[in-house]
Structure formats: C-alpha cells, structure tokens
Amino acid sequence: MTVLTTTADISANNHTPRLPALAWSLGACHLVARAGGFVQPMLVLYLTQEQGMAPTAAGAVVAAVGIGDFGSQLLGGWLGDRFGRRLTMLLGFLGTAIALAALGSAETTAAIWAAAVGYGLTAGLFRPAGSAAVADLPPQQRVRAYSLLYWAANLGYAIAATVSGVLASHGYGLLFWLNAVAVLAAALIVVIAVPETRSSAIGIRRALLPALLGDRLMLTMTLIHVVYFTLNMQAFATLPLLMTGQGCGPATYGAVLALNGLAIVILQPLAVAVLAHRDRGTVLAASMLLTGLGGGVAAMSASAAGYAVAILILSLGQIGMAVQFGATFADLAPSDLRSRYIGVASSTWSLGTILGPLVGMALLEHTDRIWLSAGAIATGLLLFAAQQAAAGSLRERQAGAISVATGGNALATSTAIRRDRIVVAR
Fold it and tell me: Which pLDDT value is given to residue 119?
C-alpha cells in the first residue's frame, strides 16, 4: 500500500492518527541536540577571530564539516540497516561529543580540519537513522512524524542561533563544551525512550547506479539542487563576515540568524496549506529565485535591518523548498529504489555545504560585495529558468506516480490528490 492511498483512507475516515511515542522521542532528540548546537552558527567567527584564520581557510574548515556530513548520510544509512537505528543514533551523539572536544581544543590547521571532518561525520548520523526509524512506522503516521522532526529541528536551531551569540561574547570555548553536553543529553533520550525499529526482513533490489544513469530527469534535478544548496549555503557562510565587516557583533549576528529558524517555525504550516497542492516545479523554481535574491540583498546590506530582510527572503526560499523537496524526489523514485533515490537527493544538501563556503569565501576574499551580490542573483535566475524547463517533465512523472499508486484509476487519482492535501495541511 502506498502513502497516497493510505492518506486517502485516513481522510475518508475523517481520522488523523495520533503520533506514536517514538515520534515524540525523536523530536525531543532533535530539539535538544539542535538547541544546544552552539558551535555551528559561530564556527566561522571562531575560526577567523579566535584562531586567526583567513576567510578562505575558515571556509575550507566549514567545507570539511560538509565533507563529513556527506559521508554520514551514506554511513548512517548503512549502519542503521546493519546494526540498527538506535545504536547508530547513539554512536552519532557520542561521537559528536568527542569530535566537539577535539575541535575546540585543536590548535593546528591540520588538527582543526580533521576534527571538523569528524564532527560532520558523527553529527550527521542521527538524520538518516532517525529518518529510517520514522520510515519504519505505519505509512499513515509518517507525514506528521516527519513534520514534527522538521519543526523541532528548526525551533532548536532558532534557540541555538540566539543563545550562541550571547555565549560567544563570553568566550568561544564555552560553546564547544555546552554543545557536547547537549548531544550527550540527546543520547540519554535515545537510551531511555527510543526503541529499535529495524526489521530483520531483507529485500533484494536492483543496483542504484544503472538506474540513476538511465534517469535523465533525476540527474537533472540532482544537478539543479546541488547548485541550489551551494547558493543557499554560501549566503549563510559569508553572512557572519559580511555583518562583522559592517560593525555588527556576534550577538547581533546570532539574533539575525535566529530569524531564519523562527520564520520557518511560524510560516511553515501556512506554507504547507498554501503550497502543497501547487505545481511542484513552479514552487521549487520560485524558491530558488528567492534564495538568489536573498543572497544578493545580504551581500549589499549595510545594517542589521538590511541583513534581517535578507534572512527573511532566504527563509521564504527555504520554506518553499521544504514543502515540495521530499515529495518531488519521491515521485521521481521507482518503488524499489525509493530510499536510495531520497538518499541521493539528500546528498545534494551535503554537497552544497561543502561547495557553498568555498565559493562564497573565495568570492568575498578575491572580489567584493558587488560581485558576490550579482553572482547570487544571477545564479538564482539561472536556477529559476532550469527548474521551470524541467517542470513539465516533473508533472508527467508525478501523474505517473499517482496513477501507479491508485491503480491507474483517474477518479481515484483525483480523490487521492484532494485527500492527500487535507492530511498534509493538518
């Protein structure tokens, strides 16, 4: 049974299933770990101000975190299937505490870079393992469970961004130790409240690579999203340097950055209600254009208010992307390759975290704000055009996916779409 037909049945019965305890426990892990994630928002400032690194070198360290995160998506998926979701989460949280201690005490560039890779590799293990645990739930519970995790993560991010700026004014070393305590607290939640959900059943499926190489639309969408997440990440990676260059302190930067998480927490439910049933290609294209515009505004801002406006524009782009991202790639995926297709889609974000800081820092160091702004806006326009060009193929693939889910019945397909909108909007 597919998610579409299941959500249709739920809507038809006028019943929204209650979230299981597992979803609340995983949401608590997200909230605690992200609310205590003080290092990530202040990492660039720590490296440039405390360690005396040049912007390009600091960008390379942030990219090293992204390299580790990219590996964690593959490693976390493999560990979760081989040894279980629960053990993988515990290894991730415990490893993150160790990596944070190493990163905060490292003195040489090589040691900092190695610790950054380890931090990204361990901190990212929770995501694929936690997502797999949610996927182990009955289909009718997954949409709301994933939504809870997304909200918890962004609420925690908003808290961390606000508090980290205040803490940084009293010394950067405190950030690392408090962050380590937070991830250990998340590990304790796993020990107490998260059961193992992995099934012992093993299915034999075809290889991923041949299917990907034969799927032009999937390859096109993957490339588009690598560029999009590179654009999005470079805007956030250069933001602290842009702000400090205008005389803004860490507390101001943290407060402006917190607007990102708060905007997502407040506006996401409205966005789901408004955008869930819109054409996916158009929503994605508009979101990419907003991201380019937000990056351009950030590069040319000269006050805290200007940076706040830029963050809000960037947030709107992220919100639109979040509404349609998962559903779009789920439609692209063959049923026997769905998890691995989504894994490839998620890796585009990880690649963006690697490339974004490198591109943004290089532009900022070797050109000026005007070029950084023009590059962001031009990239947003190019992404808008590319995504719009692919919109027709996306509509065809979506129609095919819904037709398969409803057994090819046109009336059932229409009903499934309407009922699915109701469930998603809740």
Answer: 95
pLDDT in tens, 172-187: 888 999 999 999 999 9
| Contact status, residue 359 vs residue 237, Cβ threshold 8 Å | no
CA angle 35, 41, 46 (to 5 degrees): 125
Sequence ranges of the domains in the chain: 20-197, 208-426
What is the pLDDT at residue 205?
56
Q: How far apart are CA 119 and CA 66, in angstroms?
A: 9
Q: Residue 240: exposed, middle, or buried by beta-carbon count in 10 A (0-12, 13-18, 19+)?
A: buried
pTM assigned to the model: 0.70
Burial label, 136 (beta-carbon count in 10 A; 0-12, 13-18, 19+): middle
CB atoms closer than 10 angstroms to residue 418:
12
Q: How far is 263 from 125, CA to CA, in rounded Å?
A: 26
Amino acid at 296: G
Is the Cβ–Cβ distance between 342 and 355 less than 8 Å?
no
Q: Are the beta carbons of 183 and 33 closer than 8 angstroms?
A: yes
DSSP character at residue 278: S
Any idea which residue has 């490893």 for tokens? 95
Helix (H, G, I), strand (E, B) or coil at 277: coil
- The C-alpha atoms of residue 356 and residue 375 are separated, in whole angstroms, by 13
Chain position carrying tokens 């975190």:
65
The Cα 328–Cα 378 span in angstroms is 24
**Residue 196 near residue 86, CB atoms below 8 Å:** yes
Contact 365, 54 (CB under 8 A): yes
Q: Which CATH number fits domain 208-426: 1.20.1250.20, 3.40.50.300, 1.20.58.90, 3.30.70.360?
A: 1.20.1250.20
Question: Domain 20-197 adopts which CATH fold?
Answer: Growth Hormone; Chain: A; (1.20.1250)
